[in-house]
Amino acid sequence: MPDSVMQQLWSTSHLDGGNASYVEELYELYLQDPNSVAEEWRSYFQKLPQVNGHAGSDVAHSTVRDHFLHLAKSNRRPQAASGGAVSSEHEKKQIDVLRLIQAFRMRGHQASNLDPLGLWKREEIVDLTLADYDLTDADLDTVFRTGELQIGKDEATLREILDALQVTYCSNFGIEYMHIVDSTQRRWFQQRIESVRGKPQLGADTKRHLLERLTAAEGLEKYLGTKYPGTKRFGVEGGESLIPMLDEIIQRSGSYGTQEVVLGMAHRGRLNVLVNTLGKNPRDLFDEFEGKKKVDMGSGDVKYHQGFSSNVMTSGGEVHLALAFNPSHLEIVSPVVEGSVRARQDRRLDTTGDKVLPISIHGDAAFAGQGVVMETFQMSQTRAYKTGGTIHIVINNQVGFTTSRQDDARSTEYCTDVAKMIQAPIFHVNGDDPEAVLFVTQLAVDYRMQFKRDVVIDMVCYRRRGHNEADEPSGTQPLMYEVITKHPTTRDIYAERLVGEGVLTSDEVQERFEEYRNALDNGDHVVKSLVKEPDTGSFVDWAPYLNHKWTARHDTSFDLKTLQELANKLTDLPDGLVLQRQVGKIIEDRRKMAAGALALNWGFAETMAYATLLHEGHPVRITGQDVGRGTFSHRHAVLHSQNDGRAYVPLRKLSENQPRFDIHDSLLSEEAVLAFEYGYATTTPNALVIWEAQFGDFFNGAQVVVDQFITSGEHKWGRLCGLTMLLPHGYEGQGPEHSSARLERFLQLSAEHNIQVCVPSTPAQVYHMLRRQVIRPLRKPLIALTPKSLLRHKLATSTLEELAEGSFQTVIPEVDAIDPKKVDRVVMCSGKVYYDLLEKRRNEEADNIAIVRIEQLYPFPEDDLAEVLAPYKHLKKVVWCQEEPMNQGAWYCSQHHMRRVLSQHKTKNLYLDYAGREASAAPACGHPSMHAEQQEKLLQDAFTV
């Protein structure tokens, strides 16, 4: 019988390890004579796929597991019908003991003591009882083989086996790992956990250090509660074991050679982490409590949203810690952290994730309830977003705001069940047992470092003060808080335990508490491993990007000859790369464009922007759902061979030592992916980082990222970001969903020069816009409304000279040779509608009308617009024309800028008129005929209103 068949049969089933020979024997009998085995077994073997003449390969794990579980529950245990079959009563019980062992591995966590308050009502797990396996107390002193159970001997009495299983899998922590398909990982956990019975021996120094960290956690909360009573701080009281847990993660990962740790967390416990983990000076925190405003902080933000960074020393060297800024949208910081970590790993050429570690700290209700958690998990092993595994910590307060009933909070047993989708191991641990917390933390770090996958620690605890310190939680959870008010703190419980063990005296415990409080009174740093003069060699220098005005001009021209050389390299494809016919035509056209024999289209100009930036030393990263090809087949930055399907990326082949060019089609996510790219861009100022929506309105699924980070991150936190969003936009008569990129939303969020909103209308414009984004040292997010039909429009072309010599124009004046003296009407517009207006004006030979394009709607270029309008001294009408409905697009948010310019024009009393669709609840109509009728009317209005 082939090993692969046998392994598939027993390694994924409930009948694991020691009974492999029993199943193998049955299978061999079946192969010789199917009638020699019981019908139930025969039916099972018959359903296994046939591979190379053998059954049993490529069987779905769930199918095998479910079938064996069914057999385990059945009173009709299959028996071989003839020679060599298991027959003796002892051997039958041997199999039952092996099943019992597997049951504890699978379900022991459900019988663990996880709730420090003792309020959980958990049903008896029948699978963990002897009776469920036809075993009784009379069998307790019978010796059985232990199979793969790691208890130091091959045989033991059932009593010893049962005791070992209960201590290992049903103590103050429980582990879920049997859902992991990889048998190597499962055996790793079995060896690590079973060999020490789930409780390794700790030295006195380790125990004293645990108490010291608990003292710090509790001491800060009590200090703040006394000094600033009733003030919101979202304390970690009830979950103080978080602080020794973080300390262990940092120190242990440092011993592996980790050089940076990036943390993301919402507000619960954040102040405690800032002071007791990252080493923020308590005096600075007290200043924030007292409302002392820092200089040049914009609007600022509440203290429990602030980020911080520092360096600490570990046995493996200095480790840089960074706590990400986070709004109150809880889980949205998780993908931001992943993006920041990936950028740091890329900068360090850390392809395995050894040098930079992400930690995400969650609340139980948010972890179970917010979809971005699932999206972030789904990213964890993908090429574009993997970071070598994240350590997830759930501060499980057992209540979300006021929702505490499990049947209201989620549809799963645990809040962490969502992590099973990526087969992440999950540790559930009682937060009142710091030694158990330490053990699972060490396992989590070791697992992450060895297998480079996500791992989850679910620390079951409680919140002593309610949702915040001004809350009265007994109004909604009276029974829980009746218990909490009488429940001793984690520190008190552990201190009493250590005194009982003789590790410390009661006086020494009190001395440590007083020592910490005195440090707070003195405003001293309370993290002993803090590095006061950190090594700044790996830090990113943001100084060159500070204090720049958006109006400053920067040269985005590029040498024409070098431009052509780069273009030729992009179309010089390797032998054997057979392109699809239409793609081949695109590449051939680009060869002609490079030679100056064909007008440049959008795809060529955009690609050349990336090529020239790479040539000048700037990395480029582009992600989105269709970015390799481009949703509208214009980019083709990734070429696919029609012979063997291999991918070829010309932009990676410009030179031997060029910067990174990363381009990845993303998973079908907007929220997590855009947040990831924001995190990446905030960590890599010298790169062009782009997220492109499949259609412009897809960013709706990531609106929280736009609102909380992209448009306000600098103002709230002083966090610079040069992220570029490419949002396809344009009314083509294809319905309401994919016409509008919701320009009005970005303009409504525009203030204090926080973002750039551009609507480029020519290939040269997108080329210079993208180059300007990196070459100009101003780091502001760029929202670019890009076209669809214009990608191949006969009039939307440029020349090589416009790329080589031009620059981005915030306002494009009239392009036809119209005498300014004849012009009495100016139509201003942005985007695709310009070409409709241009063709109508040319067809009607209306040489009294000038058409002006505003290519940057924010910051609004008032001076540039005034300069363009100045030659028209005989104006009678000025019209703003847009395709969007009146309540959408640029009209409401930009008209005051335009009117301000008109008020300064030499022609007095100019009034700004509107030409566009009527106000509408939907972005566009769904009927092509109605669209055409509306489009014709708005064009006519632009010329006659």
Automatic annotation (TrEMBL):
InterPro entries: 2-oxogl_dehyd_N (IPR032106), 2oxoglutarate_DH_E1 (IPR011603), DH_E1 (IPR001017), KGD_C_sf (IPR042179), ODO-1/KGD_C (IPR031717), THDP-binding (IPR029061), Transketolase-like_Pyr-bd (IPR005475). Gene3D superfamilies: 3.40.50.12470, 3.40.50.970, Multifunctional 2-oxoglutarate metabolism enzyme, C-terminal domain (3.40.50.11610), TPP helical domain (1.10.287.1150). It catalyses: N(6)-[(R)-lipoyl]-L-lysyl-[protein] + 2-oxoglutarate + H(+) = N(6)-[(R)-S(8)-succinyldihydrolipoyl]-L-lysyl-[protein] + CO2. GO terms for cellular component: cytosol; oxoglutarate dehydrogenase complex. Pfam families: 2-oxogl_dehyd_N (PF16078), E1_dh (PF00676), OxoGdeHyase_C (PF16870), Transket_pyr (PF02779). Its EC number is 1.2.4.2. PANTHER family: 2-OXOADIPATE DEHYDROGENASE COMPLEX COMPONENT E1, 2-OXOGLUTARATE DEHYDROGENASE. Homodimer. Part of the 2-oxoglutarate dehydrogenase (OGDH) complex composed of E1 (2-oxoglutarate dehydrogenase), E2 (dihydrolipoamide succinyltransferase) and E3 (dihydrolipoamide dehydrogenase); the complex contains multiple copies of the three enzymatic components (E1, E2 and E3). E1 component of the 2-oxoglutarate dehydrogenase (OGDH) complex which catalyzes the decarboxylation of 2-oxoglutarate, the first step in the conversion of 2-oxoglutarate to succinyl-CoA and CO(2). This is 2-oxoglutarate dehydrogenase E1 component. It comes from Halopseudomonas pachastrellae.
